[in-house]
Design a protein that fits this description.
- 38% of the residues lie in helices and 14% in strands.
- Helix 6 links the parallel strand 2 and strand 3.
- It is an alpha/beta fold.
- The N terminus is likely disordered.
Length: 312
């Protein structure tokens, strides 16, 4: 109840309904019904159902969409070629993903016909952002809107691991003004209350949440993801699973969670094109470098993407 009051302070929401939703989140295991390809026989309570006093059954599963995480134009092209339905464009995957440059966004959007979602994250580290960093993200969202992308991938927490409603509200407002969809990224997996993040996304009109179920991998967090899928029914939010997803485990992940959207990178290692390789000099200060690793890059592989699509 305290979490809900905190999230809704000053907002015109029925707190009794939202508190009941929070209670349902904490009791999600009792309501979970995970089925793939057939209607559930167990009813699930959604926000809309609570507000109207009605119970809604889980609808028949829709086809599963694969989103591929890409940090280059080549990866975007490989993702589309393999049958992906959408890409998330970022840079700095070694740091968990950072905002790509305007030039990269422009080139990626021009290179593929599938939707491009752009990560908005100004630095590595935690998801507690200063006012200056929020302003940077707002400006980046504006740039994304100018480049013709489909949407942005955002997220912000406060020092207690709860959704930073002030920062999120500003970012969603900027995105909607630019006609961009919003995905809440894996900051949810670092939060102190994933259900509070879901509630915040519902209240702000965020369309999607990417999560590994608060675990290192989506498969390890499958039960939490399934609970979030159940609780998000009847709302504007779709749950997308990501984190350690491969063509070998994607089918099991879909079966165990009931998700209709999956996120993965499906990369392979390639040698760089350079022939002259200077020994004893490495770029970057904190990573472990060797003469070999300095000249390797990772790109999405069309064959791996196609295998994942075929599996689902």
């Amino acid at each position: 109840r305290a979490d809900v009051l905190r999230l809704t302070r000053g907002r015109p929401y029925d707190v009794r309904v939202l508190c009941l939703f929070s209670h349902l989140c904490s009791s999600a295991e009792r309501h979970r019904a995970v089925t793939v390809g057939r209607p559930s026989t167990q009813p699930s309570t959604s926000i809309r159902g609570v507000a109207t006093g009605m119970l809604s059954k889980r609808p028949r599963m829709a086809p599963v969409l694969l989103e591929v995480c890409c940090d280059s134009v080549a990866s975007c092209v490989a993702a589309e070629g393999g049958g992906a339905g959408r890409v998330e464009l970022c840079s700095g995957l070694v740091d968990g993903g950072l905002t790509p440059s305007a030039g990269m966004i422009y080139a990626a959007v021009a290179a593929v016909s599938i939707p491009v979602m752009v990560l908005i994250r100004p630095r590595s580290g935690d998801f507690v952002f200063t006012a200056v960093e929020v302003d940077v993200m707002l400006k980046d969202i504006s740039v994304v809107g100018e480049q013709g992308a489909a949407g942005v991938v955002i997220g912000a927490l406060d020092a207690d691991g709860m959704p930073d409603m002030a920062a999120l509200s500003q970012m969603v407002t900027a995105a909607k003004a630019a006609n961009l969809e919003c995905t809440f990224h894996r900051a949810i997996d670092m939060s102190s209350n994933p259900c509070a993040v879901l509630l915040a996304c519902v209240s702000l009109g965020i369309e999607r949440i990417l999560t590994s179920g608060a675990s290192n991998t989506a498969l390890a967090g499958a039960s939490t993801i399934a609970n979030l899928v159940t609780q998000a029914q009847g709302t504007c939010v779709r749950i997308m699973a990501g984190g350690g997803v491969t063509e070998d485990n994607i089918k099991e992940l879909v079966h165990r969670t009931g998700i209709t959207e999956v996120h993965g990178s499906f990369r392979v290692v390639q040698q760089c094109a350079t022939q002259f390789r200077k020994a004893e000099v490495f770029m970057g200060s904190s990573k472990e470098n060797t003469a070999d690793s300095e000249f390797l890059i990772k790109v999405a592989d069309q064959t791996r993407v196609a295998s994942a699509v075929a599996a689902i």
